[in-house]
Structure formats: C-alpha cells, structure tokens
Amino acid sequence: MKELTLDELPGAVGREFTGEEWLEVTQQQIDQFADATGDHQWIHVDQERAQDGPYGRTIAHGFLTLALMVPLSNQAVQVTGARMGVNYGLDRVRFITPVPVGSRLRAKVKFTELREVEGGYQLSRTVTIELEGAEKPACVAESLVRLYP
C-alpha cells in the first residue's frame, strides 16, 4: 500500500496504484449485504438453486462489489494528513464481470484530477476492481473524494 500526503497529491495525478492483497468474497458477506439491503434474489443467496444457474454458484451483488471499493482502494493507496475524507460521489459505474462467491478481488486506483474546493480538495479517481483470473474487471467506477486538511 502506498501512502501519500496531501502535499504529494498534485504530483500523483495520472499515477495508478495497485493493491497487493486479494480479498475473497464470502457467502457470509453476500448474505449480510442481502440482509442490509433487502435484496435476497436467489442468484445471490440460494446456494443450491444457484448451482443450476448461469454461474454455477452464487454471485455477489454489484453494489456489494462497489461497496468493497473502499477497503480495496485503501489497500492500494491512502492519503495521510487530512483531518477528514468523505466520499463525494460517483460519476460513472460499470459492473462488467460477475463476482462468484469465493472469488478474489483487488483494486487499481488511478488519480485522474485534483482540484481545490472550499476548505479542501476534490480528488477524482478511476477505481478498477480486478477479479483474479478474469479477462475483464468486475467493476470500474469514477469516484470523487473530498479531502479536508
């Protein structure tokens, strides 16, 4: 994991950082996400039925994959020296490849733009959630983070 200070951010625009650790997606995570969101579609939670489905096992919710962007991104790069950082939003999200239970994910984070906002900075990032062994990523999202010194 790479650590950058706020002062180093301008020089990091255009750079990409890759997480070193893979995170396994478990059925427990999928079930907990289903409970939290009320999305109990069989493709996510019915392991027996999913064996006969298109992926041969359950798959993670797309929004679970998106939620995992936070810990996965933090494994790739962290900005230190801010008193507070907040997710400001997403400009574009694509769920490209389904994530079967037991799969492993990691993030590539590319800093695409840094601009000053009232009281701090807005960092635009392209976050690619890689799916181990897959040709295409699980998810690609353009993420906005506000950082306040």
TrEMBL record:
Segments crossing the lipid bilayer: none
Identification of the protein by name: MaoC family dehydratase
Record-annotated MaoC-like domain positions: 12-119
InterPro entries noted in UniProt: HotDog_dom_sf, MaoC-like_dom, NodN-like
Annotated source species: Catenulispora subtropica
Family membership noted in the UniProt record: Belongs to the enoyl-CoA hydratase/isomerase family.
CDD domains membership: NodN
